[in-house]
Amino acid sequence: MNTRKINLTLKSAITAALLFSGSSLAMDSRYEDRSGNLVADVPSDQSEWISPSTLIFAYTPVEDPAVYADVWSEFLSHLEKTTGKKVRFFPVQNNAAQIEAMRSGRLHIAGFNTGSTPLAVNCAGFAPFTMMAAEDGSFGYEMEIITHPGSGIEKVEDLKGKNLAFTSQTSNSGFKAPSAILNAEYQLKPERDFTPAFSGAHDNSILGVAHKDYDAAAIANSVLNRMLSREVVKEDQIKTIYKSQTFPTTAYGTAHNLSPELQSKIQKAFFTFDWEGTKLQQEFERNGEAKFVPITYQEHWEVIRTIDTANNVSYTCS
């Protein structure tokens, strides 16, 4: 693979891109951040706390939801035992539907993908507290721009005149990071220099490149690695021309208005789950992930908020 590991300083990318004006990263007025950690606090009025008899869990819609209902089944059983609640897996088809489900109170526990986490925090009251990591505590994934052999694309500059697949506008690796990088480092803009397309999901983009429906695509290599491991695509169908710095992966957390006692039990479930021999281990060890580690949105998502500023992203909620 002709992979270029970048040394991009995102703040300098912002300066180069000249995209800062007008971005809005403010939290929706329905939530209150009394602690100053950029995440909605539990409502000060205890009458607004909820403790549903059935908890709804959703995993980020990066691949076939039916596959992941089974992958998460043992963890959800553990979650039921730890909380004393029934737990149901909610298959979401896109990021917008997942955010709206939490905003409307229909979703209580979720894993939001890297790029949609800020929107979920600011518009849906999402309170992230963990993500997956390797046994040594390391975590993250990279954005890769991939193409197929024979596309005529050997380096990023060759994207001129080609079509490039993104996933969705809320995705970090599938849209926001590559948009900032292509503009800042290569002065490549959609429509002017290449034709953008939106596939809806990372697996769709990867399959589209493998089947030569797209000339190239920006994807999360964590998804690519799992698909290669399952032989959904083969290595000789994919060629990487760009690899980014490491980003945080899916954030897991709760709706802000769950009672503090219930939130504590949910957190305990994540941190006491035994991965050994489970379907969760079988699926995510493909990325080297082996446990859940504590995170803070304020610290671990700083780079993602910087990318959003570079892309003039607004978290204004409708």
Automatic annotation (TrEMBL):
Pfam families: Phosphonate-bd. InterPro entries: PhnD (IPR005770), Solute-binding_3/MltF_N (IPR001638). SUPFAM superfamilies: Periplasmic binding protein-like II (SSF53850). Residues 54-288 form the Solute-binding protein family 3/N-terminal domain. Residues 1-26 form the signal peptide. Keywords: Signal. It comes from the Bacteria. Belongs to the phosphate/phosphite/phosphonate binding protein family. This is Phosphate/phosphite/phosphonate ABC transporter substrate-binding protein. The gene is phnD.
